[in-house]
Design a protein that fits this description.
This protein is an all-alpha fold. The chain contains 12 helices and no strands. InterPro entries: Tmem135, TMEM135_N.
Amino acid sequence: IFRKILGKFYFWSPGFGAALPASYMAILIERKSRRGLLTIYMANQATETLFRMAVARGAITPLRHGEVLLFCITAALFMFFFRCKDGLKGFTYSALKFIVGKEEIPTHSFSPEAAFSKIDKKIKHCEKISQPMNILALTKKLMDKVCKHGPRHRCCKHYEDNCISYCIKGFIRMFSIGYLIQCCLRIPSTFRHLFTEPSRLLSLFYNKENFQLGAFLGSFVSIYKGTSCFLRWVRNLDDELHALVAGCLAGISMMFYKSTTISMYLVSKLVE
């Protein structure tokens, strides 16, 4: 319609002339609960596009490892609000709770006595296992002893583990999750060429990006937990301000998986 009326094509006609009313109608159809999330996502995409255009035209000189620095600042603020009372709510709070664990929440509900009683019950249960399972029971009992006995500050809420095993377990858990996520993302493209190039099936599991995402998530959690434990030992208290330091240092983990999109999206979520 605009081309018919104006007689030629202008750069603003597909954007402001066509896309603006179309996007307005689309956002009205979208559910109200999803409008904010969709708006933040599109604003992030637009900001990133403008930034890349400015870099390509030489208007802006990108800072080396700028996405990592931005992620460090964002992670520090996110973790601080996560530790603060009524700081974060909804999906963001649940996601951070899943990533770093409920042990880092100040209002953690477990008591040492309850946690240790659970461990004792688990050990007793293992002792009742039949003879063929003795090796498994002994291994589990040994791991419980290694995790239970060791340095743990009185302010630390990971009652079932000492500080060292607490960090190691966090790394292994999130590394596995990151590795599996990246594998799942590569499944469609891999199986599409499965019959023509069967050798590509190995690339599904032995791909550099799989380990990079795993290292990113695993090191983020382990650095955050390790720094938090260290600060509790040094200051002899558990403070929300520890999350600023721990989150900032944990942000260095993005060196394993650099992504401007992730950094800018998290900034948008933080502003939201």
